[in-house]
Each structure stands twice: as structure tokens, then as C-alpha cells.
Amino acid sequence: MLHFNRCPHLKQIAQKCFASVHVRTDKRVQLFLARTFALAEFRKSWHSTHSLVGDKNIILMGPPGAGKTTVGRIIGQKLGCCVIDVDDDILEKTWNMSVSEKLQDVGNEQFLEEEGKAVLNFSASGSVISLTGSNPMHDASMWHLKKNGIIVYLDVPLVDIISRLKFMKIDRIVGQNAATTMKDMLKFRRQYYKKWYDTRVFCESGASPEEVADKVLNAVKRYQDVDSETFISTRHIWPKDCEQKVSAKFFSEAVIEGLASDGGLFVPQKEFPKLSCREWKSLVGATYVERAQILLEKCIHPADVPAARLGAMIETAYGENFACSKIAPVRHLTGNQFILELFHGPTGSFKDLSLQLLPHLFAHCIPPGCNYMILVATSGDTGSAVLNGFSRINKNDKQRIAVATFFPENGVSDFQKAQIIGSQKENGWAVGVKSDFDFCQTAIKRLFKDSDFTGFLIMEYGTILSSANSINWGRLLPQVVYHASAYLDLVSQGFISFGSPVDVCIPTGNFGNILAAVYAKMMGIPIRKFICASNQNHVLTDFIKTGHYDLRERKITQTFSPAIDILKASNLERHLHMMANKDGGLMTKLFNQLEEQHHFQIEKMLVEKLQQDFVADWCSERECLAAIHSTYNTSGYILDPHTAVAKVVADRMQDKTCPVIVSSTAHYSKFAPAIMQALKIKEINHTSSSQLYLLSSYNALPPPHEALLERMKQQEKMEYQVCAADVNVLKNHVEKLIQNQFI
């Protein structure tokens, strides 16, 4: 067996290079009393088996032409350690012939076996190892390498790889036959690279080997520093003693807990990661799934969700369950207006973009041995999206994760109610509440803050409460992707060049969707203005204009756009926390005042800061219907009522000096009566299914939503529960559901 000893001073060198890495010790596990009682131990175990300092190897993986050998040598020089090139130092020395001669001698299949055997017969420690492009196609040898190393995937643009291979006069690689092009073979190999990597280095087009080497070292440093990316509550009060440790949570804990114990919302302690201009440009030609993988890997530490596992979740979440392969396509509407279509998921609303992924994240993050009851308040679309998403987790996870959605019994459209009730599965239920959405949302928050109730559920039933509303960070984060992707699509389609500004106009209720656009800007997307569009429940518009959040004398008005019939915008707290330089004390004061006195006023400096980026206005019911009618007449495109609200406000507030992307948050089929009224179709009193089929006969854009049509074909009416607007009544319902599911 070949063996390479690590360089004698590697440990000291690595410690010097990674001096800022902090190792967490002395973790206590409090069984059941902490919602995520086992996570600390999991992370400690993860760290002990993935430490770079010491005998671990840095293993560079990627396609031929990715620059692994050159980058490996640069890293070796920086760290002063051994550099091993598998081609030169292992294969050719083992075979006593060149790699190309061996391939010609034995053929593709036998070559992979011979190559794998050679790798299995060597070991190394404290080294930088540059793999061949075909090493990842042999499972046994990769497991052998992975046991003692961190596998870094050099993700180089395909166009760069092909250009480099041409320059090197390489016209055939392992596995390629006469009928396969080089491009197709390289695409085929990606599945193997994605299977093995621990961390990815996204190499923008034209990046130099020195730049890539620095990125590798930064990626390895991040990979090792498991405590570097934590979350705090928006109501966290910073200790006066700077040396006092901040009470922070990890991504996995924030996802599981949903709401912070002090009533605040979880936010990253650090700034969002920012991509360079060249990195963004390298994503212009990428698919939605590829963009999501790159962006979310940068926002989720691999100690919480390993990169390869996260990639698999994303591929599952944004696959055949979406009616459009582009997932969230951008369509030119008129003039400088573009529609971001967020309704191609299985339940026909933008909620699918996060709620097809969140259940997989949640199931991965929860510790074994605990049951979880997810409570969700819905103003219409969230309920069916949550139930659908959690129905897609695997059978074992369904046995320990259940969902209860609470919706205003008379505050959603008939179709939305039918969709919510019809989405009930073996691990999900719908409960109608005789009140409005704000009561549902406030009541659920009160359940989370009731330590006697949550403690009772843990001790009596071994069940922990969590949330899948946009108060949950794992629900909000995936929404960042589609705002970034929309901008990249405009670049790809030639409407703008990268760096040109755009505005976004978003129908806004709970402030989550528009906040995700703010986060996209923080990552480097050049969004100029955030246009907040309200309906007749325009508390947010008033707040943006005045800085006064005033719920006194206000009651929710039911409108044609029920998903934004909201007065208490939960995610606003996250944005105010960021604007106020993470002043948790101020957030506690403001939102306690809102709870007790039903209003608060922010200071002038914060109002001015808010208005630098935000403008807002609202739309009447008459204007909403008129916009649907006029847009159909001029372009043949049918807007749903929420999108119509946004278009009215965009027409009024946007100065037309740059493109504006209007978020279309639902398919019009979900609001057939309003659409028929807007289009002046007389047969309004038809059943929901006949209304949908009548609208689909118009051959309008966007096309009919097949999943929604299939839903209406289901004749069987499912039972559901209805309860009074009383927190204690909700408690009883939750306990009974837990008994039915877990006992």
C-alpha cells in the first residue's frame, strides 16, 4: 500500500491559517426541555469527525480541465504540505504507463475498476489531493478517500471546461464513446460530482487558479467552523459585557423551533453572503435548480444540511411537481413591466416555491425520537401548500411529523377552502376558525409562547410544536432564490445587462415575499426600489408612508385578494430589526406596544431609511377588477386579483426609467368568481369546477393550471373541523390531533 505521511509542521501551519476557527466544547443536553435537545451533540460529533486541523486531507474534485492539479499545487505551497496528483503520483506509478495508454489498453469500464483499485491501495494524511475527473465514478474508492478528507468540488462553467480541453487537445475522456459528445459526457458526470462533495467552490468564468485556491481555503475554513453561522432573535438584547456569550441558534434549530422563545423571529447573526458580479454572471445560463443550489449552499452551513444532501432536496422540491420546467419563469407583459410567474407549483401559488423544500429541510433537521406538530395560520394559499409539501416527505418522517392548518372559516375563497380541505392527508388536517387571519396567526404565536402548554405536550405526548409560516426562517429563505432568478432571466433574455437596476412590485400582506427580495439585493442583485402593493387592508402602505403602524379602529376587510387581507405583518419585525442595527430592545418595545396598545411609531431616522428603498400604495376593489379586465383586453393575459393589485400600484408608483418585475403570486383559477366578474362573464353562479372549465376555454395566458383542474374533478367532499375564535379551544384541537396522530 502506498502511504504519504503528512508534512511534520502541517498542524502548526493549518492552525495559523485557520486561527479564527473556534471549537465548541462543554455542550449540555437537556432532554425534552430544549426543543432541539440532541442537536448540540450531533454538531459536536460532526465537528470531531470533520476537523481539518491534523491529519485530514483537502481533496479537490471536478471534471477534466477544472484546474485541480494547478490549484492543488498553489494550496500546497500556501499550507506548506504534500501535494498528490492521482494521475501522476498514483496511477502512472502503479501502472508504469501513462493514463491514456492504460485507457487505450483496457477500455472504459475496466479502466474505472483499475483506477479504483489503485486509489484503494493508497492512503495519505495532511495532504492536498487532486483527483482525476473519473475518480468519483467509483464508489468504493471515493468512500475510502472521504473517510479522511474534505472533498471540495471545483464547479467550473462548462464553457470554460470545453475551452480548456480544446486548448489541451483532449478530445476524449473516460466513459466517452463515439456517439457521445464531450459536452454531453461532462453533463453526465455531474451526477457523480454532486454525490460526493462536502463543499463546493463556485468558480466564475475566467477565474484564475490563484483566485480558485483562495476560494478553496475559504470554503474549507467555513466547512470546519461549525459555529460561524448562527441565528439570533429579533428581540435579543445584546449583553453589555462584550465577552458574555450570545445566546444563538443554528440553522437547524431555527427551522425546528420556528419562533424564538422570547416571541421574536430568527435572523442571521451575520450579514447575508454576497456573490461577486462575475459569480452572478456565471449563473445567467443556469437552471432554477442550479441557481437554488448555489445560493442556498451559501446560506445553509453544511453542518446543518450537508451540501450534497441539500442539492438532492432541491432537485426533489423543484422537479416534476412543477408544471413549468423553468419553475418561476419571467414573462414580458407590456412596456417595461414583467410578470414573475410564481404559480406553477402543485397548489398554484408562490407558497409552493418554499413549501416544497421546507418539509425536506425540516425532516432532515429534527432529532430522532421526537414527534413534531406543525401549526400553520393561513390566509388562503399557505394551508394547501403546507399540507401538500408535508405529504411528500417519506413514510418514516410522516410518522413523526404532522401538520394542522388553521384558516378563517369565512375569510378565504370557496376554491381556496376546497383546496385546503382537499389537501388533507394522513399526516395533515385543516381547521376552520370563526375569525380572521390575524386571530389565527396571533393565536398560534400565543400557543408557542405558552411554556406550560408546550411543556405539557412534550412531557405527556413527546411532541414538540413548530411552525411553517413565513415566521419560520426555513420557509422564508427559499423565496430569495426566485427574486434572484427573475433578475438573471431578464439578463439571459437580453432585456437588461447585469448590473442594470430593476424595481420589484409585490402584493404584500405578511411582508415575507418582499423581505426575500430585500435579501436578494443584499446578496448582490441590483434591485432599486421595493414597491409594496396593498389592497384595502393597507396598514403596511400607511406605515411605509408615515412610520406609524396603527391598528386602532381597524378591522380586516374581505377583498378579492384574500392572501393579503392581513393587518399584522409578522416579517416586518425582521426588516425593522435590520434597519435598527439589530436593536432587540427596540423591537421588544415596539411589538409589545403593538400587542398592548395596537400601534407604534418609529423615529424619523428609521422612516427616512425605510423610504430610501421602499415605496407603497394601495388598490381598491374596483381598480383591481378593472386591471384584470384591461390587461386581458390588451394582452390576452389574465391576472389573479393579487397580481392585479400589484399591477395597479406599479402603474401608479413606478417611474418607468427601469424595468419593474411584478410578482404574480397565484394562478387566476383559484379566484374564478372574481375573474369572471372582472371579465364581465355572466354565468358567475356556476359551480367552482364549471367556472374553471369556462375560464380555461378562453385560451388565455397563462394556460390553465392542470393540478387545480384535477383538484376540482375530485367529487368526494372531505370532512374538516371548525372551531370558535378562542385560544383555549385551539389548544384542545391541537391536543386531540396529537393524540390521534402519535398515540
UniProtKB/TrEMBL annotation:
InterPro entries: P-loop_NTPase (IPR027417), Shikimate/glucono_kinase (IPR031322), Shikimate_kinase/TSH1 (IPR000623), Thr_synth_N (IPR029144), Thr_synth_N_sf (IPR037158), Thr_synthase-like (IPR004450), TrpB-like_PALP_sf (IPR036052). Its cofactor is pyridoxal 5'-phosphate. Residues 247-318 form the Threonine synthase N-terminal domain. It comes from the Eukaryota. The modification N6-(pyridoxal phosphate)lysine is found at residue 351. CDD domains: SK, Thr-synth_2. Keywords: Pyridoxal phosphate. One of its GO terms (cellular component) is cytoplasm. Pfam families: SKI, THR4_C, Thr_synth_N. The keyword NADP does not apply. Signal peptide: none annotated. SUPFAM superfamilies: P-loop containing nucleoside triphosphate hydrolases, Tryptophan synthase beta subunit-like PLP-dependent enzymes. Belongs to the threonine synthase family. This is THNS1 protein.
